[in-house]
Amino acid sequence: DTEVTQTPKHLVMGMTNKKSLKCEQHMGHRAMYWYKQKAKKPPELMFVYSYEKLSINESVPSRFSPECPNSSLLNLHLHALQPEDSALYLCASSSGANQETQYFGPGTRLLVL
Amino acid sequence: EDQVTQSPEALRLQEGESSSLNCSYTVSGLRGLFWYRQDPGKGPEFLFTLYSAGEEKEKERLKATLTKKESFLHITAPKPEDSATYLCAVPVSNDYKLSFGAGTTVTVRA
């Protein structure tokens, strides 16, 4: 099974709201990722957790706050977002060794009003 | 700088009309090349991983091949359900980052 699940599927939030995106995998993977994808563009890496520790932060604004409670779960906390943050947010996981295949979830479509 | 280029940007095919997509890369010491399929508004779906020149992998109507400078995704006798954007990606540096191509959007008409 190569399934990564994400909730919610869709999210509409105002610029003063606080919300969270959730991601889960049960493949025993030890690396988990957050990507942002704008229309007609490839995914852009935001964060990487490796063995539950933040490994990469691609200079993402602090209004995005990742959390990895355990090896199966990944959250992205959102606060005071801007309309330009509207995008498809993708979670992915891989075995834990770098350069291994990343498996993506279905994404959360976020609209910031 | 590591770079991945996909061509063409868009491909319109008649059902049954076979064609190929190209992914060229300029990375030092390739450590794998990944192909994904992405439907509008959905996450990329993993198709293939290729590790060495000469390697080939197949799945239904899709076949991926790899040389030292590029990879091809061949679509044989495509059907409308093969319509999607196809992304290729390569690992960069020694961490978890992938460099993605811009993608090829394939439209197959019945």
Helix-strand blueprint:
The complex is a heterodimer of chains A (113) and B (110).
Chain A: E1 4-7, E2 10-13, E3 18-25, E4 31-37, E5 44-50, E6 53-57, E7 64-70, E8 73-79, E9 87-94, E10 103-104, E11 108-112
Chain B: E1 3-7, E2 10-14, E3 19-26, E4 33-38, E5 45-50, E6 56-59, E7 62-66, E8 70-75, E9 84-91, E10 98-100, E11 104-109
Task: Describe it.
With about 110 residues, chain A is mainly β. Chain A is about 0% helix and about 55% strand. Chain A has strands spanning about 5, 10-15, 20-25, 30-35, 45-50, 55, 65-70, 75-80, 85-95, 105, 110. In chain B, strands 2, 4, 5, 9, 10 and 11 form a six-stranded mixed sheet that branches. In chain B, strands 1-3-8-7-6 form a five-stranded antiparallel sheet, with no helix packed on it. The radius of gyration of chain B is 13 Å and the shape is globular. Chain B starts with a strand and ends with a strand. The model of chain B has no long low-confidence stretch (mean pLDDT about 95). The chains are: A mainly beta (about 110), B mainly beta (about 110). The interface of A and B includes residues 101 and 104 of A.
Please give a handful of descriptors for the protein shown.
heterodimer; A: 113 residues; mainly beta; seven-stranded mixed β-sheet; four-stranded antiparallel β-sheet; 11 strands; 57% strand; globular; B: 110 residues; six-stranded mixed β-sheet; five-stranded antiparallel β-sheet
In short:
By secondary structure, chain A is mostly beta strands. Chain A has strands at 4-7, 10-13, 18-25, 31-37, 44-50, 53-57, 64-70, 73-79, 87-94, 103-104, 108-112.
